[in-house]
Amino acid sequence: MTEINWGTPSDPQLTLTRLSDVLPERVEWLWPGRLPVGKPVTLDGDPGLGKSTLALKIAATVSNGGSWPDGGRCEHHGDVLLLSAEDGLA
Question: How many CB atoms neighbour CB 30 within 10 A?
Answer without folding.
Answer: 20
